[in-house]
């Protein structure tokens, strides 16, 4: 077996299961799973109708580059969403099987370790989505973390030394951020672009939560930021997905967009990798990207949940609505996120994810410790009831 597999750490949910072994929820209580970011809103009819209407196309092999109609639908969506952003649908857009597999594959295509030389570096925010780390390690690289401290929870790029930047081949950006929901502003992007100009790394921008935002404050995307700052998309690739936007995590559909030269090589890799999207899924994806009404309703439901849940939690905790995403990044005043998660499970069958499982130890300890991630993916009533229970059970007093 590939010895690099031994470097991989257990996934956060596996660590949670292990931490909960032997602990039972109260008898008769139905588990309330708020620990995993799996959308629970109804799948849009426009998507299921398109999928059902094209099932006969399962008899055909799809092309890895996808249907021209799908790439055009993605380009049209980018133009509508990002203030006229214009990309070439033939060379700057590539359909993928969700952002997760694309991020995993792309990072490995960027790395080029050479025997006897220092390992190439991928810089990741911390806390982080564990795919970034796994892809780096299996690609023969070294992962380096930029802690995301309160109150903004944006990566502290300036804490990274010259010796690390010199070896850096890729920087992963996650905005809106998982788990904090923070969003990079134009000046934050300017800072990253200046570092890119100095050190020549590729930017991989994970933007899968971009359509869940509040008060009309649309998160700016990396390609939009580059355009507004008068830059090309050289060395820049964004990753997005229908999973959160359209409530279809099982469809496994998204796309990447950006630097045509990088995507040309990425397409070659994917052709060998067997990553072509089935034609019915492509047809359903076209319908999803072309329809915005279901996204507006989806966003309204999340807005309603946050509007009701946050005031309840504020009775005992210092917490605010995130810039975007469907996560509450809740600070536990006594700092013991794992004990808090265990207490909620044992007393109320509520499942939340300890923040320590989403991060690695950095210069100042584990930046996820002392927080829990709560995914408001259940219906409004369930989320509100869970928030009231959390407040009633917490005995630590107001933060």
From TrEMBL:
The UniProt record lists the keyword Cell division: no
Alphabetical list of Pfam families matching this protein: Aminotran_1_2
GO MF terms held by the record: pyridoxal phosphate binding; succinyldiaminopimelate transaminase activity
Cited CDD domains: AAT_like (cd00609)
Domain Aminotransferase class I/classII large: 32-383
Listed cofactors: pyridoxal 5'-phosphate
Keyword Protein transport found: no
UniProt protein name: Putative 8-amino-7-oxononanoate synthase
GO terms classed as biological process: lysine biosynthetic process via diaminopimelate
Keywords of the record: Aminotransferase, Transferase
PANTHER family linked to this entry: AMINO ACID AMINOTRANSFERASE, L-GLUTAMINE--4-(METHYLSULFANYL)-2-OXOBUTANOATE AMINOTRANSFERASE
Gene of this entry: dapL
